[in-house]
Amino acid sequence: MKIGTQVANALATKTTVGLESTILAHGFLRPKNLELAIAIEKEVLSHAATPSTISVVEGEATIDCGETYLRKICMEDFAKTNIADLAVYMGRKRNAATTVSATLEIGAAAGLTWFATGGLGGVHRDDGGDVSSDFHALATKPCAIVCSGIKSFLDIERSIERLETLGICVVGYQCDKFPLFYSRESEFGLEHTASTLSEVVEIARAQRKLMRSLVILNPVPHKFSIEKREVEHLLASIESSATGKGKSPFILKKLGEHHNLVTANFNLAINNAKLASELAVFESEMYLR
User: Fold this and answer.
1) Known catalytic membership, residue 20
2) Alpha-carbon gap, residue 137 to 126, rounded angstroms
3) In the chain, how long is the greatest CA-to-CA distance?
4) Do 28 and 111 contact (CB within 8 A), yes or no?
């Protein structure tokens, strides 16, 4: 594993924020993806934390930061890998962007505990039983990840049920309903909420002892939130032609053609990195220094 100097130094105080690279390599068109990568790093650094983007570079699991590294991920061709085929890209010495599951796998091995992403994978709406490998990683890694819920095109209710079945604790940060990625809330209420950084950190530290991840729900900022009905209308026009393993990338690509959705995704990703940074630094200052 290759760990950049700045990340390695920050690991000593646990002020790292693990970031997936799939959102950069596959979530946005060029050069918007590089703009996002730089904006996220700037946000994390502004809170005295260290951005730690995870990927596979020429077969080597890599955790690093800086524009040169980010430019490589954003401007070169990177495949997409989860924990199921991570070894293939490593063994064949290829470049690959990591999904949440692969990001947690690599990050946890390096000692990272705080992560941020846009939205999680989950249970698909059809009856095929397709469940994201993100859930397996969340059930087996002692991490905490800030997100804006499950991606909107998935089955939210069944995803929530699966999280509970797997023992993955879910806490809403200053919200009492499950967010819908592009939209601030759904009809599904949250059993557990937290209003302060201290509350979240205490829960994360307890969940870590159970060797499972904590999911921290952080809704998209108000001014970028989109009405649920608008998102559902777009999904209905896309989903009918999306099938198989490439279903999620296809839907995300089509959704990415809509400016307001891109703007929401862009800003919620930055906002989640902000909260993860605040949590990492708070824990470090209160317990680890």
Assistant:
1) yes
2) 22
3) 53
4) no
Closest CA to 100 of 133, 73, 78: 133
Query: Domains in the chain, please, with CATH?
Result: 2-288 (3.40.1790.10)
pLDDT, tens digit, for every residue of 164-175? 999 999 999 999
What is the Cα 134 distance to its own chain's centre? Answer: 9
From the list 167, 268, 143, the residue with the least C-alpha distance to 218 is 268
Catalytic residue among 151, 247, 254, 274: 151
Catalytic hit among 20, 41, 43, 278: 20
Q: Which of 173, 158, 67, 160 has the alpha carbon at shortest distance from 116?
A: 173
Place of tokens 């490593």: 90
Rounded distance between C-alpha atoms, residue 141 and residue 54, angstroms: 16
Known active-site residue 191: no
How far from the centroid of its chain's Cα atoms is residue 196's Cα? Answer: 21
Q: Which of 26-30, 251-255, 274-278 has the lowest mean pLDDT?
A: 251-255
Contact at 8 Å (CB) between 156 and 122?
yes
3-18 per-residue burial string, b: 16 or more CB within 10 A, e: under 16: bbebbbebbebbbbbb
